[in-house]
From TrEMBL:
Belongs to the enoyl-CoA hydratase/isomerase family. Pfam families: ECH_1. This is Enoyl-CoA hydratase family protein. InterPro entries: ClpP/crotonase-like_dom_sf (IPR029045), Enoyl-CoA_hydra/iso (IPR001753), Enoyl-CoA_hydra_C (IPR014748), Enoyl-CoA_Hydratase/Isomerase (IPR051683). It comes from the Bacteria.
Length: 245
């Protein structure tokens, strides 16, 4: 069964919808593969000016699917694919975003979130760290905010997400807020969009090229640790891990 809804097209804008609400659109190996294929199709289609990435259900993305996780290299490749895509990728968020889902969001060029959205980097509470998702996140978000939310795992809202640079804008009506953005993208030439995107993503892509392998290795070591096994088991069993006092 597909975890991605059929693409929708409207005047040069293709919408890709994460459609696995049963597991809160968690990044399984299957979903990562389907999304990568759909983005390849958008890149090759001359009628597509930009891509909107959105979701069904009350969660944009809950992070990695702990029951069927993607290969770390595949997840890194997906995030880099979004950053390097020659067409803008716009995130439309009307729900919760957790852990690895923030990496997906951070890879997008423009993003808007509504009042029902919430965000948290919960890896530290599982004995892990936001390792590979740091590749798109750390070049873009406020360093002090990154330190706070990486370390504490606190939840924050769309207004705070916009303040720290995680998203572009917070709005009461997400579609209304994105309307002028999408109209602006429709007015831009394909060449102009691609060349302009190269300028604003150069630092992020450099971060991928310099640090991806190191962060994949760090992530693998953490996932293999006894502390992470306890953290993930506690999460799946809906209990506090042993270190909580």
């Amino acid at each position: 069964m597909s975890r991605l809804a059929p693409p929708a097209h409207d005047r040069g804008i293709t919408t890709l919808t994460l459609d696995s609400p049963a597991n809160r659109n968690a990044l399984s190996a299957a979903l990562v593969g389907e999304l990568a294929t759909a983005l390849d199709d958008c890149a090759a289609d001359d009628t597509v000016r930009a891509v909107v990435l959105t979701h069904t259900g009350n969660t944009f993305c809950a992070g990695a699917d702990l029951t069927a996780p993607p290969d770390p290299h595949a997840l890194v490749a997906l995030m880099r694919q979004i950053v390097a895509l020659p067409k803008p990728v716009v995130a439309r968020v009307a729900g919760h975003v957790r852990a690895g889902g923030l990496g997906l969001l951070g890879a997008c060029d423009i993003s808007a979130a509504g009042p029902d959205a919430s965000f948290a980097l919960t890896e530290s509470r599982l004995g892990l760290a936001p390792a590979v998702i740091s590749l798109p996140l750390l070049p873009r978000i406020d360093p002090r905010a990154a330190a706070r939310y990486y370390l504490t795992g606190e939840r924050f809202d769309a207004t705070e997400a916009a303040r720290i640079g995680l998203i572009t804008l917070a709005a009461e009506e997400v579609d209304q807020a994105l309307a002028p953005v999408l109209d602006g993208l429709r007015k831009a030439s394909p060449q102009g969009l691609a060349a302009s995107k190269e300028l604003v993503t150069a630092t992020v892509l450099s971060n991928f090229d310099q640090h991806a392998e190191d962060l994949i290795a760090r992530s693998a070591a953490l996932f293999a640790s006894a502390e992470a096994r306890e953290g993930m088991t506690a999460f799946l069993e809906r209990r506090e891990p042993a270190w909580v006092s």
